[in-house]
Amino acid sequence: MTIGPIQLLNQSTPGQRRTLLAAALGWMLDSFDTMLYAMVLTYVMRDLGMSKAVSGFLYTLTLLASGIGGVFFGFLADRLGRKRALMASILTYSVCSFASGLATSVVMLAAFRFVLGLGMGGEWNTGATLVAESWPGKLRAKALAVVQSSWCVRGMIITME
User: Fold this and answer.
1) Alpha-helical runs (H) found in 49-160
2) Is residue 76 in some structural domain?
């Protein structure tokens, strides 16, 4: 039997819906950061005197940090709990995403993008794990699909404008 998103939400508890919303919003905000950074990169390169190679390195640095952040926040989640680790990871990349806009040098931007990547990877890991642990087996795959699909929401919003 196929169930849609409304039936999925109707079959879940308020706690499960909150967990799903938190993880999905986290993935969506990650996506917004990625898109916004790409949109302003030309201006950042000009203002900070960056070459294309350096800008590519910063993207790579962020993605490498996300892998490290997934492991780091995974250990943190095991010790402090998934909910706290998820909140800490979202706070980490949100603050560093904002701080990236205030960077006045390439080194400062690289530091902010690295720490942002740690939080981003932590959010991917802890958000998905928290949803997987809190949803029943028969609904788990659909709930995780909703979380991962939220990455595309920013594209729909930008396209509609």
Assistant:
1) 52-80, 82-100, 106-134, 137-149, 153-160
2) yes
d(CA 15, CA 120): 23
Q: Which residue is listed with tokens 């999925």? A: 8
CA distance 145 to 150: 9
> For the segment 81-123, what is each residue's pLDDT rounded down to a tens digit?
988 998 999 899 999 999 999 999 999 999 999 999 999 999 9
The answer to whether the beta carbons of residues 41 and 55 sit under 8 Å apart is: yes
Angstrom distance (rounded) from CA 133 to CA 118: 22
8 Å CB contact between 78 and 126: no
The span from the CA of 58 to the CA of 116, in Å, is: 11
Residue 103 lies in a domain: yes
- Residues spanned by the domain of 128: 28-160
Task: Pick the closest to residue 24 from 123, 134, 135, 161 (CA basis).
Answer: 123
Give the total number of structural domains in the chain: 1
Give the type of residue at 46.
R
